[in-house]
Specification:
7-stranded parallel beta sheet; two-stranded antiparallel sheet; 12 helices; about 15% strand; binds NADP nicotinamide-adenine-dinucleotide phosphate
Length: about 290
């Protein structure tokens, strides 16, 4: 699988990685199947994994996905040191709900828990999961700066942010990546200039829910244009959607989720799918995307 440098980190990783969320939230597979999915992604060439402390069922289950990925990396036959593992802090899961919790004390305690769950002394990329409207943004980002200064975090990323928030955060601590929802039916990060800004600054952009997420994946599966373009390449509509996303910007690192081995293997194939110029033009027009 093709590789490129992840933002300004200097770290080479694959152009597409595995999103860990479906392995740990409601409807998750059992643990051994979850580990098989991670191994399948790695065996297929992925060297980038996205996780978060809150990929779990509820507050009593925090760290489920981080621990699962750690176990899978330890039991994998390949060289796990090649894998760039990105995690996040800044949310909680009271009774299974998703809540922002961006105060400095929470972020620092969450980072310590993630270090333990991942079994490392330093987190490669620590992403602030989402701005908290009850906490000044600068306080949250200041906590990430402190974590970086303390050596607990090598690089800082953001998630669910606007272009203005990216610029504000970058004044406080160097940011290496942005992770926002982005897929053929959700082009807001292009329209708002976030992806352009990542390109300008040389940052990585991680489109999350790149095939629409748990609720939107059916739309990809049934999209006649994606199906038709895929036919000529013997590729599924999911693979076409991911391959198209990769053509939209050099900053792109899609992180498709999977709870099934075949989904992970299919997503890995997407990274090697070469769409023709005519395919790309057709898909741009279909999705209303302007380059
Ligand atoms: N920062 C945030 O706020 C945030 C929010 C949401 C997600 N994320 C991150 O982004 C990752 C991806 O998002 P997501 O998991 O919500 O949605 P997604 O990547 O759009 O995937 C949703 C579902 O689509 C199916 N799928 C994916 N690739 C496929 C393929 N090639 N062929 C067939 N089916 C495929 C999988 O189904 P099966 O389960 O049946 O395999 C997967 O569970 C997450 O895992 C997580 O790491 C971040």
């Amino acid at each position: 699988m093709q590789r490129k440098t992840f933002g300004t980190t200097g770290i080479e990783t694959t152009i597409l990685g595995l999103g860990g969320m479906p392995l740990s939230i409601q409807g998750r597979p059992d643990r051994s199947e979850g580990i098989r999915v991670v191994h399948a992604a790695l065996d297929a060439g992925m060297r980038l994994i996205d996780t978060a402390d809150v990929y779990c069922l509820d507050d009593d289950d925090i760290g489920h996905n981080e621990a699962l990925i750690t176990e899978a990396l330890a039991s994998w036959s390949g060289d796990a040191s090649e894998v760039l593992l990105c995690t996040k802090g800044g949310l909680t899961r009271p009774d299974g709900a998703w809540r922002t919790e961006g105060n400095a004390a929470h972020l620092k305690a969450a980072c310590d828990r993630s270090l333990k769950a991942l079994g490392v002394e330093q987190i490669a990329v620590y992403q602030f999961h989402a701005p908290d409207s009850d906490v000044p943004f600068a306080e949250s980002i200041g906590a990430l700066k402190d974590l970086r200064d303390a050596g607990k975090v090598a690089h800082v990323g953001l998630s669910n942010v606007s272009r203005a928030e990216l610029d504000e955060a970058n004044e406080i601590v160097p940011i290496v990546s942005v992770q926002n929802r982005c897929n053929p039916y959700d082009l807001r990060s292009f329209e708002s200039g976030v992806v352009d800004r990542c390109e300008e600054l040389g940052l990585a952009f991680l489109p999350y829910s790149p095939v629409g997420g748990g609720s939107g994946k059916g739309r990809v599966a049934e999209d006649p244009t994606l199906i038709d373009v895929g036919r000529a390449h013997d590729a599924s509509p999911f693979e076409v959607a991911l391959a198209w996303l990769l053509t939209t910007s050099d900053a792109m690192f899609p992180i498709p989720g999977a709870s099934k081995v075949r989904s992970a293997e299919s997503s890995a194939r997407a990274a090697d799918l070469e769409l023709t110029e005519a395919d790309v033009r057709r898909l741009d027009a279909h999705h209303g995307f302007r380059r």
